[in-house]
Amino acid sequence: MKSTTQKNTAFIKSEAKRLGFLSCGISKAGFLEEEAPRLEAWLNQNRHGQMSYMENHFDKRLDPTKLVEGSKSVVSLLLNYYPSEIQNPESYKISKYAYGQDYHFVIKEKLRELLESIRTEIGDVDGRAFVDSAPVLDKAWAAKSGLGWIGKNSNLLSKQVGSFFFIAELIIDLDLEHDHAVTDHCGSCTACLDACPTEAIIAPYVVDGSKCISYFTIELKENIPIEMKGKFDDWVFGCDVCQDVCPWNRFSKSHNEPLFNPNPELLSMAKKDWEEITRETFQAVFKNSAVKRTKLEGLERNIRFVKE
């Protein structure tokens, strides 16, 4: 006979699959002991640059029971965003995760549905949904839940599907069966360290966020440092280099989420189209896209920096 805990766990995992998530893993909510000193050192060394929000809620970031009162389980979920087609290779590039609609909205909706199903099936379950916009260490929880290991490029990697996926979680007040972490399969490979255009991966498993192309093109609001000239390899919003070169990403399969499909115009845009982009084109091509975060002015700044 299956226990109630087993039945509830199986139900949540099958619902996650029905909603289109790649995989679902579960951990006991509690203090992240191993991550605490690492996060503290990373912040003390100013590896987060101007992302000052990383310093906020330090205790909540390490302990979800402080974030969601009464929480017992962290349900981690992965959602694939690997596209079936990519941009014109001769053009300026944006991260593949930004091709379609802003993932925050797409995933939040799926998490809302998942929580509704849990309440309908199991009863009065309290909790909150998170998609990388709150003080939750997504990758640490996903690794703890057995969904992959944190690679040398500091991304979560999976032997089955690589790393082109979003990570989200439900933190709920329900006891569930817990999964176990998997082993690291980076081995002696240094492909990501060798390929990083700005040498942001300063040591295996350590990324200096303030040197990353994604940081410069999305988070940094002022002028991009002149010493980065010529190092952006045509990236104008985010960067996928450390994922593109990772051997595990040869197992990436294209997603089947229609909302992540790009505007066809994006795929065919040439450099000239980017350089002459108007507000109308920006609004049309990036309607509901994560690229809106930089605003048109930010995107123009990035294009100028890469072009000059």
TrEMBL record:
This is Epoxyqueuosine reductase. It holds the Pfam family Fer4_16. It comes from the Bacteria. Binds 2 [4Fe-4S] clusters per monomer. TRNA binds at residue 221. Belongs to the QueG family. The active site is at 132 (proton donor). Keywords: 4Fe-4S, Cobalamin, Cobalt, Cytoplasm, Iron, Iron-sulfur, Metal-binding, Oxidoreductase, Queuosine biosynthesis, tRNA processing. GO terms for cellular component: cytoplasm. Its cofactor is [4Fe-4S] cluster; cob(II)alamin. One of its GO terms (molecular function) is 4 iron, 4 sulfur cluster binding. Cob(II)alamin binds at residues 61, 132, 153, 156, 167, 214, 239-240. Transmembrane segments: none annotated. Residues 177-206 form the 4Fe-4S ferredoxin-type domain. Monomer. Pathway: tRNA modification; tRNA-queuosine biosynthesis. The lineage of its organism: Bacteria, Pseudomonadati, Bacteroidota, Flavobacteriia, Flavobacteriales. Its EC number is 1.17.99.6.
